[in-house]
Amino acid sequence: MARYANRSLALAYTGLVLTPLFWAGNAVVARGVVDSIPPVSLAFWRWVIALVVLLPLTFPKVRREWPVVRDHWPRILVLALFSVASFNTLLYVAATTTTAINIALINSTIPIMVALLAFLLLGERTRPIQRLGIAVALAGVLMVIAQGTLGRLISLSFSPGDLFMVAAVISWGIFSVLLRRLSIPLSAMTFLTLQIALGTVLLIPVYLIDLLLVSGGFTLSASSIPPLLYVAIFPGILAYAFWNHGVWAVGPARAAIFMYLVPVFASVLAWLFLGERLGWYHLAGGALILVGLYLTTRNPPAPRNHGA
């Protein structure tokens, strides 16, 4: 039993490391296609593709668990609203009117937001060693974002896009806490399929309004297919599955600390694919983040029994 618990935790932490890697790639792709694919269109078609890929694999299980789905669909709908329908849509919209530095800075407050909401809604407290880990990791994030220069951090200005990012962070924090609080006895893949399906349904009116009155959509081409496939499969299906399991296994506040890795991974990906320079502050900040993660994840609790 102890061996199973250790293996489950190891898988949870591995998934929580891959999640920010995929999300960092999501940010790089979004910035790359912002002039060719409108943000709402990117969000909507991302989830349509993810559902097309996922549904043939999970439909038999969804069908078997349908009585449970029927009883709990309002809860799944609420979770889908704050995750699939809201978070990335708000992030994509934010990317059109604010800088990548500001997005990374605001996104790095997710652990603080989740810890605050977990305390307010669940009464979940952090130990002193965890608070130290949060502080060390946050220092690493700020070092990466500020590129080792205090003046760069102080001189940041805020735009309407920053407000969208704040809304995105709040949305993800609510989702993470509710995911722990709302007990839904479904298998992981059934839950993910319903989460994406209901989130996509919620996005339909938003997409139609944007298509008809705002952006006019985009033209599908050979250059637009790869980024759509990437954001659907990696930061879409895989990252959400990893995050859901990680929150269940280690709790929302501890899982949220791994979001500190997003700006580190984003810096490396930008260096590899966009030719941006990898500076000393990336290495120093990354080291601080890893130390913070170690402090925060020491002596993790044993996972609960899963509903399915």
From TrEMBL:
Spans traversing the lipid bilayer: 37-55, 76-95, 101-122, 134-155, 161-179, 191-213, 225-243, 255-274, 280-297
Highest rank taxon of the organism: Bacteria
Subcellular location field: Membrane
Swiss-Prot/TrEMBL keywords: Membrane, Transmembrane, Transmembrane helix
Residue span, EamA domain: 13-145, 160-297
Membrane topology of this protein: Multi-pass membrane protein
Family: Belongs to the EamA transporter family.
Protein's UniProt name: EamA domain-containing protein
